[in-house]
User: Fold these one by one.
Assistant:
Number 1:
Amino acid sequence: MMRMFSSRLNWDVSPNPLARLLEQKRAGGAAVLDLTESNPTRAGISYPAAILEAIRHPQALRYEPSPRGLLSAREAVVKYYAERGLPFSPGRILLTASTSEAYAYLFKLLADPGDQVLTPRPSYPLFDYLAALESVSVRQYPLRYDGAWHMDFVELERAISPRTRAIVVVNPNNPTGSFLKPDEWDRLQVLAGDRGIAILSDEVFSDYGFEPASRVRGEDRALTFTMSGLSKIAGLPQMKLGWIALSGPEADAAMERLELIADTYLSVATPVQLALPELLVLSAEIRAQIQARTRANLDALRSIVAGSPVNVLNVEGGWSAILQVPRIRSEQEWALMLLGERDVLVQPGYFFDFESEAFLVVSLLTPRDVFEEGIRRLI
């Protein structure tokens, strides 16, 4: 029989054992304590009514597409970065509907079918799917933990091949919550710049550090694409607006080609672009709530597990925490037992490609009462 569908979609989409058990639990009426909640619109965050007014812009009924995005929106992004010590110009900002779309654009820009991108391990399990849709392969490089997380530059260099086109960094990483250290950033710039490899810096959680940290960095020696958007910095994933900020050598040539890609799709809706300046102002109030929630949950987590066999790995930022639990059972067995016997949902470390057992990942965005009760049941 002739093959009808692309082999890029040959993914196993059958539910895993944890998903099947969760479905059974909820069908049976169990009150599951979900410690994986990462959607701020479902986490009890209070949103100002002015958000709805911001998208009721009178010009929203006019369609005047701009591949890079409306100038007023790109200027708002420039202002956002200027407040954080990062100089960009409107001409080097390109709007996208999401960070996922930004990755798709960049893979199209940088790679031919069969080329390679390097991604961190552990990290969020999305890169394989995004790359496969562009016929690009993924090779991982490890992050190492010694009380803090670090890039393993020896293994990173070993992973580089003649077909490597980009190195992805997530800053701070999800779920480790680790920021790149200034010396790591500089070393990465030299490594990538000398080899003509681009850097894709995913900074969606960069406003959520638990300790003050400077984001000022030196001159980029490699072509660098910095990505973020409203999903995390404003807690507004439904608004569907992200961006790519370009810097380093060949940035102007890269922008010309990105503009061609964006002009093919024109995916970013006009109302959210017009609202972006106001949404970025309002985002400070939303971020403050999320920062207070994640800090309070992290403090509670450390307090509850104190003196127990559970170890909380050091976390510098982001919305997640990693628990190292006794290796008396596998991560999957831990997660299934907690859900089956304690009605507590957590994510096993292997979801994020942890190299060893046994780690569980919980979301610090979870409402506080649910979070604290869930952690007590886990202990």
Note: The chain has a mean pLDDT of 95.
Number 2:
Amino acid sequence: MFSSRLPWSNAPNPLTELLRATRARGETVLDLTESNPTAAGFSFPETSILEALADPRALGYEPASAGLLPARQAVSEYYSGRVDTDRILLTASTSEAYSLLFKLLADPGDEVLSPRPSYPLFDFLAALESVRQVQYPLMYQAGWSIDFESLERQINARTRAFILVNPNNPTGSFLKKRELEQLIRLCRAHGLAIISDEVFSDYGFGEDPERVRSLAGIEDVLTFSLSGLSKVVGLPQLKLGWIVTSGPVSERNAAIQRLELIADTYLSVGTPVQWAASKLLPMRRHVQAQILDRVRENRSFLAGQITSASPWRLLATEGGWYAILQAPRIRTEEEWALLLLAEDRVLVQPGFFFDFETEAFMVASLLTPPEIFREGIRRILARGL
């Protein structure tokens, strides 16, 4: 009776079951997995947000397949005017953007390349479109980089697109200029489009002239740059994302026309948030400053707690909201996560949630309020003594 696109199993994993039981007993858990800015103790300009959403124009309905022009102009201004509005298409979320792009680029049974490790979302999004996800590895050698040799071996006649998360979640690694050059050559040779997920691009640590922050200006190969209010302004509940289409003019225009037709079929973006976009996007400076201060402070504390004698290791990162700890190999990732929750009341995500190739890694959110983060980290590192 039901679709076989996904294995529809809702059986909880052992960590989820233990967390539920722990909280049911009324015990306090130091949650180092918080990824929701609205639940992390930041100050938002509440009055201004509500006023932006009270625009009386939201009472009318003007269907526009690419999104209302004022909203697309606001997105163009986010890119400092470097992106024309006719290259911008609004979506209800980045997840929906992937769905539209898979419909645009792939037939059922075709393949898309996605990074490993990465956020565990692409397999579900691809499966729901009857597209197969094929993972390519990121290598770690004092920093993360694309394993191009392995990547090229994954390409075949059914490969349609290369997915880049820039910076990656959870590794926090940015694409470098030399990697971009190699990637463009590879995609041109095999006729692949690039999907560049740039939701964390505003959250880089420091400066690096070799870092590529956005692919929104690429002219050599068909490229789609994705972002949205969820991370840019820390407002995931307002459901506004976008796709910027770049590349050779003829391919770009053909893609834009087809994307608008697909989007017109759904018309999913809410009118109130579109009219509010021009006021919401400038608020990012206030919110991002707080988030950047928080993640830098937490990461600095974590780095300062790991001495040369510690069996724990902090992996290098360039941005984003997460820290990766390499745990002593005396236990598996699942064993570490269960132990930390059961005995220390600290919740972290094991590396296999993100498809790390080897063990043992723990992922902690740098978005966590500092007092919770510090105590949680102290408890974790004490386990290695």
Note: The first strand starts at residue 30 and ends at 31.
